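[Q] Does anyone have a clean structure-token version of this?
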Amino acid sequence: MTVPSFPPGFLWGASASAFQTEGAADTDGKGPSGWDAFAAQPGRIKDGTDTTRGTGFHQHYREDVALLAGLGADAFRFSVSWPRVVPGGSGPVNPQGLDFYDRLVDELCAHGITPAPTLYHWDTPLPLDEEGGWLNRDTAYRFAEYAGIVAERLADRVPMWITINEPAEVTMLGYALGEHAPGRTLLFDALPAAHHQLLAHGLAVRALRGAGADNIGIAVSHTPVWTAGDSDEDRFGAELYDTVTNWLFADPLLTGRYPDENLAALMPGPVQDDLATISTPLDWYGVNYYNPTLVGAPDAGAPETFSGFRMPPELPFGIREIEGYEKTDFGWPVVPDGLRETLVQLHTRYGDRLPPLYITENGCAVDEPAEDSRRIAYLEGHLKALRTAIDAGVDVRGYFTWSLTDNVEWTEGASKRFGLVHIDYETLRRTPKDSYAWYRELIRAQKAGRPGTPA
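[A] Here you go.
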């Protein structure tokens, strides 16, 4: 397969997050997060990985920046740990925490790499989680305060900002199904967590701009929803799932309204006033894509899962296995054309209201330390599909693969490896994989204006 040339100026990057990589849970004044408390509960981390170590990024960041420079990457999407900067979620600022990100940004800039920080990648300060987390409206205002604090320190050197990562997953896995922090099992009563994250985003956009930041986006997960059957129940289930996973988040951000009046009625507070804040204009919109989802009517006998987690039978839809495609180590189907489908769908649905797009996450969990051929094939296929979407008129400005290094994959611990660089979790030694060399050569070829498959 040949990867075609991308437009001049197309941005090439890689991603990471604080909880998954930084470690150092109790150093430099960092406070605990809800994820730290959740991971400490017996059985929560399936392989027993010590999540407080991460990949040692807090100590090894210069080494990882050198790996980015070796790739020829234009940008690095990392996340700022809210409890490292404001340990209590509000109140006193931890100067050592800000100093760490100051050093990281300086290191990236010294290598000509654009810092692209995400301000929230799931690690809510524990004191806020204990007060209700995203079910509490006050959390949105505390997040905006924190966003302004970070921008005041870093905006002079950071030209690209991301407010929140994947509010859908936080809502579903953390508050509806109880599989992620904070472990709540509220089902549809989790919807206030979605609304408050969206409100936090809008408030943060305004706080960032007030502190001198510019070029602001958000990273939202999207999945093409395929209908499992021809019955009315199948179609209803698929449409509802599509609404609550895709449009419940994108519509308020891009149109200033919720996609369904019944869902809007379940949201807390002055919803119409909040929507004006939520829809504060963005400079760009980030898309996280991994795979399509096959959805139909609920079926108590089916092995229904969401990202590997069992779905409660009382939900009005059911997730089905997608057959006929290669699977990643997570069991996710490898469907590159789903990325094209997602981008074209966004372009069609929103038209002129859709700002320029960046692919803020795309990658696969495979463990092939010898040759890494499955990851290379995955990236190659998805980049070709991405170029097809651009040719169809979708304005995509850049691509961040997930992820630079292997990392602690939330409840999966160290058992699922997404990185271009292998991490030995005993020694924290970094070893570039064949996919690292492939991506490096791809970037070189693209910058030289040459299509083709890297050697």
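[Q] Thanks! Anything notable?
[A] The radius of gyration is 21 Å.
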